Amino acid sequence: MEVTTDFMNWEMVERDQFGRVVGLAAQVGGEMRRLPVYRVLAAVDGSPASLAALGVAATMAGRSAESALHVLNVQPIIGNTSDDDTLMHAGLADTEAARRILGEADWRYHLQLTAGNPAEAILAYARRQRITEIVMGADGAGSVACALLGSVALDVLENTDIAVTLVKSRHRARQFGAGMGDLLVVCDGSAGSLRALHHALEHTDKLTDGPRIHLLNVHRADDGPFRGRPTARNADARSGDRERALQACDAALRTLDAARADYEVHVASGDPVDRILELATSINCGRIVMASHGLGWFAGLLAGSISWSVLYRTVIPITLVK
């Protein structure tokens, strides 16, 4: 495969103690006009899932002058000598499609090629650059959770407090860099769900035409779904359910009001995963934002984790916030 290299002007070349190149960085498309406060990192390896993730990351970063897009590729090998360009050629080959897409869209971004353990390199880069959100592909290989995510995404999720957005290869953005639809924020009244809402607001606050936020509270119905003709008693029950939901989400609602956000409240009863997916498909949903509750993948599967189940069943990007 022919790799495009002629436009590269490396601003940073990092070497290890033996003089071997272990990092290359370049600003593509010109410098930022102002200091970015919302930094989105797309981890790209050339796979369909990572290219889908790139589209979502660009959408997040491209609608505000205060945002920046970082594209990171990690190679597990480096050259043997100080003049070995293995890292450059392997990294540029893996980012060829991503750079072509961004170039055709006249995108401004920071490109980083790094050698090392992929998960560790992603986490280290995110800390060093003060990344606001990590966007990764959600397709993997193997068994159990690795069949869903892959070991790199699992390691990143386990070891970061930064919000992580997971994108499947089957996800198709409406248009590269265009608006990605409304945000569905799942709220159960917990501190984790409130942090998820704050993260959603942090993103929308940077946009001139921010998306609408759909706040969803789901409670499990002990008696199952109602069957039969509606009665005044059933209506009272539904009214009581909504009142309890509003009480559970009181802090979230006050936060939304204080931010003067464009939002809508939804109350549902039944299986949380089913209700989340039903609402996501009935609205103009571009992203689902949820608390991850810090569960590891094995514990999450054993506990029937809602976030894992939603991720498994939908192609809509999901942002997990600890």
TrEMBL record:
InterPro entries, alphabetized: Rossmann-like_a/b/a_fold, Universal_stress_UspA, UspA
Name of the protein this chain belongs to: UspA domain-containing protein
UniProt cross-references to Gene3D superfamilies, sorted A to Z: HUPs
Pfam families: Usp
CDD domains registered for this protein in UniProt: USP-like
Species assigned in the record: Aromatoleum toluolicum
Protein origin, superkingdom: Bacteria
Family: Belongs to the universal stress protein A family.
Stretches assigned to the UspA domain: 39-168, 183-322
